């Protein structure tokens, strides 16, 4: 018993308890910690994977929404396009060194960074195309009316422009408050003459807000075509700030005003450079400088919105490149007459009419344009299948048509070597416009607080303030898509690559435009290059229009050539002009109805009709690339194909 008791006592001794409560060994602790780390890493991986999936889903949802909304707008415009106007497609690359030619390789390569600080080897060429056409529908000005809502410009015709916009520096030393803080309606958006102040797309200069592609925005500019006096029936009866109720002359429509808002006298830059409030057409009443409701000529703290020092940076008339103007006092009928009027004076022939211009307008155009009274007939282009590498020294009717259509763009093309420019861009017709300039815009309505914090001292300053608020809001009204890093427009006559030799896929559609890499044997994107007529039946480029003779038989089909489409033979090789424009007008000036070439167009063997319609594309393809606002290295590209109206 004593022995058992002693044993029990021994088993409950402190030493025995210590052995029973022994802790974990170092190895056991390390194993446990390792297990915890493995579990933690696993959970973190799961959470990160879930987070990435959610972020990717949100990004995909956002991109899908952007793509859907973009398609809706593009489709609405293209499907309403009218052949009563013209169509121009300017295909071009951003010009990093502003030399006007395409540099694919070397130290001067036109490679544009996606974002600031991007590695040089990841930078690439970027397309910045433009397309301009006309459509019918229901439109109204985006500017807030100064009187009641009924006094707003409206139209059922409009010019539609898609292309990248161009921002100004906020600290532009050559503009200061003039252009940045106080926008001007007659601002051409031309950059200053010195290279350091150049803010064109992709220009590699300090503080250029348009230097990187992720800073670009795609614009959709709608310009209402509104004839003068269209708003006369809705003139406000009461006073408009300092304009008293009885001052009908100031309220009325005029060359530079519709419904009290600024209006460009024309869609053509050359005409707008010579017509405006400072130089009113004396044949129009109520056109004096001060008789414009929108004009803020105040020299006080608010300032004015019109620059009287007309020159390269400022036009005489309101400018469509200013970003503040969305009205032109014109119509589809007048535009057609202007484009065709300088190409033919035979008003008796269908589709042609002498130039229609208000008294005083014609003298504002370049001397390169023959006056309508001169002997200048619509002579068919000589040898249209023998396309020159540059425009002829003596322009033919086709070149004048191209010149007018090119002048409708908000700015000149970026090309050098005279390829996409015109000698008729002479004094008074756009020679002051710098190549490659785009319409002005701002991503947000800036400095509204500066204006809203001001206290007008009199009714005139109150009107100035209202106009300036409208001006600044207009600068963002045309922005369709921010962070648009590339915009590509290609067109087709509906041809297909039957054997797949061009695209690598038999039956693929052939598209025309500059090739991404001309050295590649096949183009998987279907881009053949620039259009060129091929006389071989069934070959790519064998595009013709049937011609019916007076005797009821069919003559040899009329060839559609690159002379008609481009004016010359373009090339997308290195060192060639950085932009090429495709023109689609009204009637084909390369067609000669005198099929037997005897000087008489009334023979049985001659064409049954004196003109042929200009051949238009059957479809256009738009490719829009947008960068992710959060993950700046990510880009998404949307591709849309639209059929065009029958011509």
What does this structure look like?
- By secondary structure, this protein is α+β, with helices and mostly antiparallel strands.
- It has a domain at 80-489 and 619-643.
- It contains 11 helices and 18 strands.
- The protein has helices at 2-11, 14-20, 26-79, 177-181, 248-251, 269-272, 332-341, 397-407, 448-452, 459-474, 562-565, and strands spanning 87-92, 130-140, 154-164, 217-225, 257-258, 261-262, 327-328, 479-482, 484-492, 496-497, 508-509, 511-512, 527-529, 544-545, 558-559, 579-584, 619-627, 635-643.
- Strands 1, 2, 3, 4, 7, 8 and 16 form a 7-stranded mixed sheet that branches.
- A hairpin with a 7-residue loop joins strand 17 and strand 18 (635-643).
- The termini are far apart.
Please work out how many helical segments DSSP would assign.
11
Order of helices and strands: HHHEEEHEHEEHEHHHHEEEEEEEEHEEE
Flag low-confidence runs.
3-11, 172-180, 282-286, 343-377
Taken as a percent bin, the fraction of beta residues is 5-15%
Shape: globular
SSE blueprint:
Elements: H1 2-11, H2 14-20, H3 26-79, E1 87-92, E2 130-140, E3 154-164, H4 177-181, E4 217-225, H5 248-251, E5 257-258, E6 261-262, H6 269-272, E7 327-328, H7 332-341, H8 397-407, H9 448-452, H10 459-474, E8 479-482, E9 484-492, E10 496-497, E11 508-509, E12 511-512, E13 527-529, E14 544-545, E15 558-559, H11 562-565, E16 579-584, E17 619-627, E18 635-643
Parallel strand pairs: 4-7, 12-13
Antiparallel strand pairs: 1-2, 1-16, 2-3, 3-4, 4-8, 5-6, 9-17, 10-11, 14-15, 17-18
């Amino acid at each position: 018993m004593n022995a058992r008791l002693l044993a029990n006592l021994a088993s409950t001794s402190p030493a025995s308890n210590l052995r029973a409560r022994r802790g974990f060994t170092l190895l056991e602790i390390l194993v446990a910690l390792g297990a915890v780390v493995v579990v933690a890493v696993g959970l973190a991986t799961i959470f990160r994977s879930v987070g990435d999936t959610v972020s990717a889903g949100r990004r995909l949802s956002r991109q899908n929404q952007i793509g859907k909304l973009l398609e809706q707008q593009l489709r609405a415009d293209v499907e309403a396009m009218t052949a009563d106007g013209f169509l121009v497609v300017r295909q071009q690359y951003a010009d990093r060194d502003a030399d006007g030619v395409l540099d694919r390789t070397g130290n001067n390569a036109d490679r544009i960074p996606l974002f600031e600080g991007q590695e040089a080897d990841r930078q690439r060429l970027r397309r910045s195309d433009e397309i301009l056409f006309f459509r019918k529908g229901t439109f109204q000005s985006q500017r807030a009316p100064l009187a009641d809502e009924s006094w707003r410009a409206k139209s059922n015709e409009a010019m539609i422009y898609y292309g990248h916009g161009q921002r100004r520096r906020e600290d532009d030393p050559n503009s200061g408050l003039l252009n940045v803080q106080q926008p001007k309606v007659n601002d051409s958006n031309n950059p200053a003459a010195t290279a350091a102040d150049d803010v064109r797309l992709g220009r590699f200069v300090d503080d250029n807000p348009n230097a990187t592609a992720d800073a670009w925005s795609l614009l959709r500019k709608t310009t209402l075509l509104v004839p003068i006096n269209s708003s006369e029936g809705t003139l406000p009866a009461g006073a408009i700030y300092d304009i008293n109720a009885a001052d009908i002359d100031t309220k009325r429509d005029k060359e530079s005003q519709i419904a009290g808002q600024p209006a460009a006298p024309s869609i053509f830059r050359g005409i707008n450079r010579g017509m405006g409030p400072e130089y009113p057409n004396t044949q129009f009443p109520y056109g004096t400088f001060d008789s414009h409701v929108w004009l803020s000529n105040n020299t006080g703290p608010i300032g004015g919105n019109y620059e009287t020092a007309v020159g390269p940076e400022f036009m005489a008339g309101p400018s469509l490149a200013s970003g503040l103007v969305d009205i032109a006092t014109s119509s589809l009928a007048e535009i057609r007459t202007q484009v065709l009027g300088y190409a033919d004076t035979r008003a008796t022939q269908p589709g042609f009419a002498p130039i229609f211009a208000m008294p005083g307008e014609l003298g504002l155009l370049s001397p390169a344009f023959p006056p309508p009274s001169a002997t200048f007939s619509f002579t068919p282009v000589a040898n249209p299948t023998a396309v020159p590498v540059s425009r002829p020294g003596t322009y033919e009717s086709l070149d004048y048509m191209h010149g007018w259509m090119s002048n409708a763009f908000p700015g000149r093309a970026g090309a050098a070597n005279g390829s996409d420019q015109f000698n008729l861009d002479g004094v008074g017709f756009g020679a002051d416009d710098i190549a490659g300039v785009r319409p002005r815009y701002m991503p947000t309505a800036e400095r509204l607080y500066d204006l809203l914090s001001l206290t007008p001292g009199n009714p005139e300053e109150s009107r100035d303030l209202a106009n300036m608020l409208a001006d600044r809001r207009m600068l963002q009204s045309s922005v369709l898509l921010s962070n648009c890093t590339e915009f590509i427009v290609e067109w087709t006559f509906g041809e297909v690559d039957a054997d797949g030799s061009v695209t690598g896929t038999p039956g693929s559609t052939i598209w025309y435009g500059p090739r991404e890499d001309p050295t590649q044997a096949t183009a998987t994107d279907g881009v053949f290059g620039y259009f060129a007529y091929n006389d071989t039946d069934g070959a790519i480029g064998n595009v013709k229009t049937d011609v019916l003779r007076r005797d009821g038989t069919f003559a040899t089909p009329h060839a559609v050539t690159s002379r008609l489409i481009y004016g010359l033979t373009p090339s997308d090789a290195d060192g060639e002009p950085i932009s090429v424009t495709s023109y689609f007008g009204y009637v084909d000036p390369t067609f000669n109805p005198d099929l037997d070439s005897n000087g008489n167009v009334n023979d049985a063997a001659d064409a049954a009709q004196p003109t042929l319609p200009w051949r238009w594309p059957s479809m256009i393809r738009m490719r829009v690339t947008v960068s992710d606002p959060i993950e700046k290295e990510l880009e998404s590209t949307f591709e849309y194909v639209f059929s065009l109206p029958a011509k």
